[in-house]
Every structure is written in structure tokens, then in C-alpha cells.
Amino acid sequence: MPPAPETAAESRTIDKIALPGRDGVFSLTLRDGIVSALTPSHGDAAWLALPSFANLHAHADRAFTVASFRPRNFADAVAAAATARAHFTADDVRTRATRLLEKSVAHGVARMRTHTDVDPIVEMRSIQGVLEARAAMTGRIDVDVIAFSTSRNDLADPNAVARLRDAIAHGPQFLGASLNSSVEPRRALDALLDLAERHDLPIDLHLDEHLEPAQSLAGLVADAAIARGLQGRVTMSHLCVLSALPPDAASTLIARLAEAEVTVIALPETNLYLQDRRSGTPLRRGVTLVHELLAAGVTVRFGTDNVRDWFFPFGDGDMLATAQSVTIAAQLDDDAALIAGLCDGRGAIEAGTPADLVLVPADSLDDALARLPAGRLVFKQGRQVAGLAHLKS
Ligand SMILES: [Zn+2]
């Protein structure tokens, strides 16, 4: 374990800093919420400095609900979740969501976007519990709550629309839905976009989390976004089907996504775990076309997706582990693109940048990805929110 950084009343200086893509070792000073100085130093690197991580696709309301679970297939996971979610209370959602937020802070996650179930099974209990957890963590992690109309709340049904409208009254930052299971996806999409426009909320969809080209809805959503002037207001999470399309069809669709200024969230861990799940070894792995999306100018970000629930029984909210999965599953070797996906577009730490950063006890990005070390020092607006020195103070 490297030595803890010096502490001063108004500023803090940390020595032996490594930076991705830069040779040498640096000394980093934080003052007044920014990186006030970054100067060459000497010796061996002890800390890799990265911008704070952003987990742009989580399910805090469902986190830590299973100790051990293996679904037979995707539908089996949905069914098991529905059975268990019937017993959720706002209190237990708050407790589990808080646990995920606490762990996320320790890993260096400064922002989370969490899909929060809205359906006849949990009614408003999930959103109530998540909002309470969010309030309790103010100042340590920024949480965007998505009112997520699940596959059990088909927005083609006016009663489901009314339920999502009730959820909007709780003050979410995004609207979400799972459109592929709708009996009438176009109608469900229109209902969702009507609500989004009326309440001036961006949307983040669970979209095309499957490998059947005939069932793809991404083009429909992109067209609707363009027709309504909602460019830049739509995020699509998953898009596994891109990997199952013929190359020409994938290129055409990706160009449409770029025109709609869609953000795509790649979620390799749950996709590898759930896609093509059957009795034998999976062949079609379902990771969206990260390279091709980036090459077309589409913004690509990452998220953990599920953490220890029916859809994924592992993990604890560590976005560095997700970045490692991206490098393995998508073979994304471009460090700048990897860091942008991990840190919501932020790049290298420089003098003058916000003091929202994580110091990983590692001497390089590859060392950090190799070992996923604990003991990180995490700063938010210059204030330490996690790490050993924090615990001592
Ligand atoms: Zn999800």
C-alpha cells in the first residue's frame, strides 16, 4: 500500500502520480475543488490518477438480492425477478441501494444512473427507496434516477402510462422503458416520448437486448427521435442485436443512430452472461459494436448493469472491473476511448480540471486493469470521500 497523501488545510498534495498516456511521475495538488497544479516529480509511481468513474447503467433497487443464482435463460431471469420483486419494500430497497452506492463511492464512482422499476409489481416502492438512498448519499455520489417502465409495464396500455406518470411525480431525472416486450412497440414508444416531451425529460431505453434482427427496434426509436427533434436526448442501453446484424445492415443502423445523436451504453458483463444462454457453450456473445459505433461518431459509455441479482449474480459496482470486461469482450485497446467510456467523456487529469478523481494504487492503466486494486483514494470537488486517509480522519 503506498503512503497516504499529505493533508493541508486548504490544499492537498499527492506525490508519485502516474497518468494514462503520459510518461513520467507527477505531483498533484488539489485546491478549491480543482487540480491546481500538476508538476513533474521523480521516483516510482504509486497512484494512477483517473477522472471519477461514471456508472451510467445500474439497477440499485435490485442490487444484492441474490447470494447465488443461475438463470436458465433471459426469460427465466425476468420471471425470477418478478416473483421476488413482489416482496420489495421501500425500506429494503433503500438499504440495498445505499449499499451499492457506498461500494460505488469506494471504487471511485462519482455518478450513477440507475434504472428504477416502475410496474404493477413494485408500484412506487422501488423509486421511493432509491430516492431515499440518493438523498442519504448527497455530496458523495450524484445519482440520476430513471423511472424505468419494466417489461411488466407495457406502455401500450394506458394504465401503464398512468403508472409511469405517477412515478414522474417523484422527480426522476430520466424516463426509461423496456420496449421489446411490448405487444405494440410503436405505440409504447410514442407514449413514452409523449411523456418525455411533456415533462422535458431525457430517455434511456433498455433496447434490443437480444440477438434477433427481425425484432430490432433501434431504427424505429432513432427515426422517432429525429422526427420529434429529440436528437441528443435518447440513450440506448444494450443494443446486443447490432452484433447479430449483417455488416451492411449494422452500418446503416449505426449511421441512423449517429444522426439521432444517440448515446449507447455498452454492458458487456450482463450480455456475456445472459445472451445465447442455453444448454451448451454460447457462441453469439451479444456485446454491442463498440468499435463501429465509435468510428461513426456515436457516444459510447459503460455501466455495470445488474449487481448480484437475477440477471447477474456477481460484481459490487466496480466500474474498473467493467472497463476490464470491455477490454476483454470488445477488445477496445484505445485507452482514451476506454477512459471516456468509463468516465463519461472526461479525459486525462490536467491542471485546471475538476478535482473529481480517483487515485488507484497502481503504476499504470494496465496495472490497474490487471489487478483492480482496492484502497483507492476518491475525491469529489476536492474533498476526499473514500479511501484510507478518509477513514483515519
Ligand atoms: Zn439494465
Key traits:
Urease, subunit C, domain 1, 2 domains, binds zinc ion, seven-stranded mixed beta sheet, 34% helix, TIM Barrel, 13 helices, 15 strands, 393 residues, alpha/beta, four-stranded parallel beta sheet
Your description of this structure?
Helices cover 34% and strands 21% of the residues. With 393 residues, the chain is an alpha/beta fold. The protein has two domains: 11-52 and 346-392, Urease, subunit C, domain 1, CATH 2.30.40; 53-342, TIM Barrel (Alpha-Beta Barrel), CATH 3.20.20. Helix 3 links the parallel strand 6 and strand 7. Helix 10 crosses helix 11. The structure holds zinc ion. Zinc ion is lined by residues 57, 59, 115, 206, 237, 305.
Task: Give the DSSP E fraction (strand runs of 2 or more residues).
Answer: 15-25%
Continuous helix count: 13
Helix and strand element order? EEEEEHHEHEHEHEHEHEHHEHHEHEEH
Q: Please give the CATH class of the largest domain.
A: Alpha Beta
Question: CATH fold name of the largest domain, please?
Answer: TIM Barrel
Number of strands: 15
User: Helicity range of the residues?
Assistant: 25-40%
- Report the end-to-end length measured between terminal Cα atoms: 18 Å
Specify the biggest β-sheet.
Answer: 7 strands, mixed
Strand order of the largest sheet: 3-2-1-4-13-14-15
Bound molecules: zinc ion
Count of the separate structural domains? 2
The CATH superfamily of the largest domain appears as Metal-dependent hydrolases
Mean pLDDT: 95
Low-confidence stretches: none
3D shape: globular
How does CATH name the architecture of the largest domain?
Alpha-Beta Barrel
Structural class: alpha/beta
